[in-house]
Amino acid sequence: SVREPFSEPKRYTVAPSAAGRIELSHIQGIPLLERVVKYWPRVEKFQASEEDLLIATYPKAGTTWTQEVVDSILNEGDVEKCKRAPTQVRMPFLEMTAPDGSSSGITKLEVMDPPRVIKTHLPIQLVPRSFWDAGCKVIYMARNPKDTVVSYYHFDRMHLYQPEPTVHYSICLVLCKMGILGWGSWYDHVKGYWKERHNKKILYILYEDMKEDPVREVTRIAQFLKRQLSKSTIEHIVQMTAFSAMRENPMANYSTIPDTIFDRTASEFMRKGEVGDWKNHFSAGEDAAFEEHYRKIMSDCPIPIRFTI
Ligand SMILES: *[C@@H]1O[C@H](CO)[C@@H](O)[C@H](O)[C@H]1NC(C)=O
């Protein structure tokens, strides 16, 4: 397949309607979208309940996939129940506010009764305190950083209210610890939850493991959620949450997000869902430089992340 280098901004022109493209602001040194920062106080003081479940990921690491798996488990594989509403309504995005300010994760959560399933991309130190005070369960999914950054790049091309994906999406971005992307450094993010996984109720799962053996990983998630499911229900959930099924599911494929926000001519939200697409974007030299850097930074935290399966 054709290699698409990051460092070729001229190929990726941004639609003229992209007036909403913005820069990032910061909370405690973590770069976040301005609208996340603007409404931060109400996120910070959000009151979680003990039965709430938090699904935490770095952006583009299998969030929607994990959400759909969890909702399918909680509804015991009932397809119709899982299609009751779009992902962002069923499982609100804690810190997010719509670009026009019309709705937010918090406003959605406030009218829902626990147990609620809540999505976040916040690094562990920014998760509202009430989640820990209440002893909430957390499912964290990590994905290898090469595929994550490739996915992030294509996402920013299509999401017109994300910062413009041009110069800073060069390989330098990876070498700079990805610290200039929204939600901060990938390294700090995956390490933060990893180091706390035994101190808090955190189930740590890996995208590549779930891709390799979804039956095994869905079973682990079901056990963590204390749901007894038959082997055939687990297998059914695996079918329901396969990339091809989710891409065609209007309640899971973000087709409800308007074209003024998602420019689907640039890229699709459900793009590939594969392990190893980075090979189409990284040259051998870039990969070698990345590997050297990665080994150094991860040496104090050996998370068994794989780049191929
Ligand atoms: C989402 O699902 C619907 C229904 O299957 C389909 O028509 C649509 O093409 C899918 N993809 C997107 C990006 O909306």
TrEMBL record:
GO MF annotation terms: sulfotransferase activity
BP-aspect Gene Ontology terms: catecholamine metabolic process; xenobiotic metabolic process
Sulfotransferase domain location: 51-301
Subcellular location, principal: cytoplasm
Pfam family, one: Sulfotransfer_1
Localization, UniProt: Cytoplasm
Protein name: Sulfotransferase
Organism, as annotated: Cyprinus carpio (Common carp)
